[in-house]
């Protein structure tokens, strides 16, 4: 039996303090999954396959953390460690991407058989001072693309909230950043609630960046591996609920 999960994560990528867009990964395909050691009974079938898709920006590709530290990779590992399943993960994201950039770089031939998809996007719209109306128009368009990739099933999509980079050395506690990020998240949350789409809040995790500096990566801006671990503590149960039930 083969089951596919599209993980569509629209990560928030900040192209801050001279991030080199060309040097960042785009469209990452994970293969050769790790053999699980202590599986739980998600499916007693070693050929069981989930397809995950993550759409986003630097928060999705894990700017300034190791490849296996970013949250889509951590989700993949968590699933494989706790099941007999294999996970095929595809990431479409790049540091600095806005909603417009993500739309422009999603291949028109994107598969439509993903089992689980995450979408995390919008921080660069805010950081670059782009008119909020652009986000209001393009976020729903990206959601529709993500749903289509997730077998056309709204239940297979999770929209992830934008982290608050005000609580980093780079953000310096700027309350204006927090207010603007909140504006984006409120719109995304309301849209998701009105359309029966799962919205996962992780912003509060990143707002502990001053009290827990270990939640901030070495660049002083992006979330650390530990922060993404805390994201997975919230995201993995949703995967189990939506995909394995």
From TrEMBL:
Domain SGNH hydrolase-type esterase, first and last residues per copy: 55-229
InterPro entries: SGNH_hydro, SGNH_hydro_sf
Residue intervals passing through the bilayer: none
Protein name: Lysophospholipase L1-like esterase
Species of provenance: Wenyingzhuangia heitensis
């Amino acid at each position: 039996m083969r089951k596919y999960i599209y993980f569509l994560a629209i990560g928030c990528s900040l192209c801050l303090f001279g991030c080199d867009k060309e040097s960042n990964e785009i469209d990452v395909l994970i293969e050769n999954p790790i053999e699980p050691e202590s599986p739980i009974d998600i499916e007693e079938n070693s050929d069981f396959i989930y397809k995950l898709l993550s759409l986003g920006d630097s928060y999705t590709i894990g700017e300034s953390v190791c490849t296996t530290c970013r949250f889509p990779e951590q989700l993949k590992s968590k699933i494989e460690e706790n099941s007999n399943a294999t996970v095929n993960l595809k990431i479409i994201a790049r540091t600095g991407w806005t909603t417009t950039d993500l739309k422009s770089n999603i291949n028109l031939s994107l598969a439509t058989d993903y089992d689980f998809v995450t979408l995390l996007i919008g921080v660069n719209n805010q950081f670059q001072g782009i008119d909020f109306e652009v986000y209001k128009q393009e976020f729903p368009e990206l959601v529709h693309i993500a749903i289509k990739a997730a077998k056309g099933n709204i239940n297979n999509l999770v929209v992830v909230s934008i982290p608050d980079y005000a609580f980093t050395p780079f953000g310096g506690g700027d309350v204006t950043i927090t207010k603007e990020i909140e504006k984006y998240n409120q719109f995304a949350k309301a849209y998701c609630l009105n359309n029966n789409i799962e919205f996962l809040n992780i912003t509060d995790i990143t707002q502990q960046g001053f009290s827990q500096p270990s939640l901030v990566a070495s660049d002083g801006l992006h979330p650390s591996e530990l922060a993404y671990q805390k994201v997975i503590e919230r995201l993995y149960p949703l995967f189990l609920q939506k995909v394995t039930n």
